[in-house]
Amino acid sequence: MQLDEAKEKFIASWGSLGSNWGVSRTMAQVHALLMISEEPMSAEDVMGALNISRGNTNMSIRSLIDWGLVEKLHKLGERKEFFQAEKDMWKVATRIARERRKRELAPIMSVLEQVKEVEVSDGNKQEAGKFLKQMNEIENFASRIDRMMAKLDQADERWFSSLLSKFMKR
Amino acid sequence: MQLDEAKEKFIASWGSLGSNWGVSRTMAQVHALLMISEEPMSAEDVMGALNISRGNTNMSIRSLIDWGLVEKLHKLGERKEFFQAEKDMWKVATRIARERRKRELAPIMSVLEQVKEVEVSDGNKQEAGKFLKQMNEIENFASRIDRMMAKLDQADERWFSSLLSKFMKR
DNA sequence: TAAAACTTTCATAAATAATTGAAAGTTCGA
DNA sequence: TCGAACTTTCAATTATTTATGAAAGTTTTA
């Protein structure tokens, strides 16, 4: 396989992976492109390399910056902005985990809170009881995951690695 | 809040959560409905409760069975099939992890394998070297996650809990 | 074996999400 | 302050994903 071909393949498949991870396909492709680029690239460069529109390029880069996966920088003597990706996989993973915690876990936890306010009367005592029990179980689990992700966000990779090796022992 | 209202709210929000998790919205709603139903339900029941078409009901239930989140059962003396959801959150989470490992991790690992076959010539030695280094890092990370998920799939909840508490200590 | 009861399929339709590109906005240097 | 260089916005379009429901298929019972 030629190098260019390999790069394209990686970009395409990172793109489809992304679409399963709450990162849109193009967004993930831009990230992939920047990950394998040796130099920071301008919006124009990205646009050309992936053959996408100016607007889409801008939106994708913007979201990647929001997610903390790409950073903007300025080259001396250049007017244009350049972008470079976070290449460290540990950081990439924790950034994604952080965003998803915010976007997904938070809303479900809030619904679980609300739903527990249900009125219990004589008539529905048993049914409501079972419902509440189920809701509590879910909330319990969700909040464990939530705390875990919050921790992960602060943690560093070495700590995680050592945990992982304990994890794999048994 | 009334009980019915609370149930609807839970179903709706479980649905939108699902759509972020590779489970389609309706599929997740059916799962939610079955989780809070005290009795197993028939396809007809589900169709009525969620106001969705016969075809969609069938497809959603079928996928849930594939994912291992719902099981089919027969009531004595009834011709119809009934369905009941896995209600234990630990099992729900491990089933989802198992499917996603299969659907997402596996393909990217295979691409990483392929891409490492890239031809290195004198001309692109340096560039190819950096590319390969990057691919190796990603593969390394991915395979750690992969092994972790494989382990999770076999593990039981108590073990996970004790790990989690170690995890939360530091 | 017929027909009723139930389940599955699949072409088409509807809903949702992503993309385009021209126009408007912004920033910077002279 | 002007205008060139660059960035952002957003209404309209295009692509992708889901849902529908009538028709075909299957199983069971009488």
Q: What can you see in these coordinates?
A:
The structure is a homodimer of 170-residue chains. In chain A, 71% of the residues lie in helices and 7% in strands. Chain A is elongated, with a radius of gyration of 22 Å. Chain A starts with a helix and ends with a helix. Chain A has 2 domains: 3-85, Arc Repressor Mutant, subunit A (Orthogonal Bundle); 89-169. Chain A has 7 helices and 3 strands; from the N terminus they run ααβααββααα. With 170 residues, chain A is mainly α. Chain A has helices at residues 3-19, 25-35, 43-50, 54-67, 89-115, 125-154, 157-169; strands at 41-42, 70-74, 81-85. The model of chain A has no long low-confidence stretch (mean pLDDT 90). In chain A, helix 2 (25-35) packs across helix 4 (54-67). The interface between A and B is large, with 56 and 56 residues. The structure holds a DNA duplex (30 and 30 nucleotides).
Summarize this entry quickly.
Two copies of one chain form a homodimer. With 170 residues, chain A is mainly alpha-helical.
List the helices and strands of chain A in order: HHEHHEEHHH
The best one-word shape of chain A is elongated
Find the count of extended strands of chain A (DSSP E, 2+ residues): 3
Greatest interface and its residue counts?
A-B, 56 and 56 residues
Main sheet summary of chain A: 3 strands, antiparallel
CATH domain class of the largest domain in chain A: Mainly Alpha
Question: Mean of residue pLDDT of chain A?
Answer: 90
CATH architecture of the largest domain in chain A: Orthogonal Bundle
- Percentage of residues assigned to helices of chain A: over 70%
N/C terminus separation of chain A: 40 Å
